[in-house]
Amino acid sequence: MDNLTHSLFGLTLARTPLGRGGRAATIALVLASNAPDIDIVTTAGGAAKYLAWHRGPTHGPLGVIGLGLIVAGVVVAGERLLDRTSRTTRDAFLNLWAISSLGVVCHILMDLPTSYGTRPLSPFAWTWFTVDWMPIVDIYLLAILAAGLWFGRSAPARNATFALLLMLLNYGVRATMHWQALRTAPAVFGAQLPERCNDAVMPGAPIDHWPRDTSLSPRDSSARRCVIEIAAMPDFISPFRWRLIAQLANGYEVRAVNLLGLPNMPASNVRLIGVYYPNQWTPAVAKASNAPIARTFLGFSRFPSVRSVIDENGVATVIWTDLRFVIADNPASPRQRTPGVFGATIRVTPNGSVVSERLGS
């Protein structure tokens, strides 16, 4: 989730019994609700460093304990700086630590439902987890939290509770529509979709994760065409619009679906808004995958699609795109693909030397 949403959520929690500690508790909840994103400091080492570390250890067990302790210490130090007579007792500090740790946990739990995902076990395990219910920025969640704070000034506790209930309703609608989108996937893709692979991800799993061990590899050009996984990506505007991604052994089939209009939508119209993305690992792609930025991107990307071109000098330009973040394609021109927000571009010579590498497609 974005930091504005995290901040508004922290302020909302401060209007519940968790905020009984007054100003110190409110500050602790707001700071802790944003604390895991302190990993933004890694941008000092470049965008690739940030991609490698974002939602890593600061979103894991050590982050919960350590960041909670740091936030509590900062709040206590700030209180003493503003009020020289202030003396925080041991019990008050432990209470702030508990509140701050809860704020960090809530941050991680709010990141989990997004299509971006999070790594709650890092640094002990660098596996990504997600449930794909929410976009990175949810306008409805922002509206609920902002309205609850604005209109709840006269009865803060009651309105905070009401806002939290509306939040749960919003999550519930997204979760239900996500399940419905996956349920309709076979009808949307139709007969064009091959059978499932032997070790395919079974549909309906409550939490998805990656990278995962599989016998299939895009490097194997002889692999039979089968379905590895079908996922549903949320829309930024409507909870009823979803992008269905079918990961195949050698590429991806993508469909856009509106659950409100699906019962009356002819099958031919569904196919018109479908796009195929190849994922074929040529020798040039295999060489480019050894570049540091490529390794970082492939460790982050859940659905990496690759394409490559070779110029007259034999230098190959290899471009990866994470299909989770490809902007909606043009329904009238299925072959017109909009560049993804998250991607990596590597240029390699025939002998595998990296000419240039950068994030972005």
What proportion strand? Answer: 15-25%
The chain-level mean pLDDT equals 87
- Overall radius of gyration: 23 Å
The biggest sheet amounts to:
4 strands, antiparallel
Please identify the oligomeric state. single chain
Q: With helices defined by DSSP (H or I, 4 residues minimum), what is the helix count?
A: 10
Low-confidence stretches: 266-272, 329-337
State the order of secondary-structure elements, H for helix, E for strand.
HHHHHEHHEEEEHEHHEEEE
Structural class of the helix and strand makeup? alpha+beta
Describe the structure.
Among the domains are: 3-130, no CATH class; 281-361, no CATH class. The protein is 40% helix and 17% strand. It contains ten helices and ten strands. The chain has helices at 3-14, 23-34, 47-53, 61-82, 90-111, 139-151, 156-189, 267-272, 283-288, 292-300; strands spanning 128-130, 208-210, 227-234, 241-248, 251-258, 275-278, 304-310, 316-322, 343-348, 354-359. It has a four-stranded antiparallel sheet. It has a four-stranded antiparallel sheet with strand order 7-8-9-10. A two-stranded antiparallel ribbon has the order 1-2. α2 (23-34) packs parallel to α5. The protein is globular, with a radius of gyration of 23 Å. The model is unreliable at 266-272 and 329-337 (pLDDT under 50).
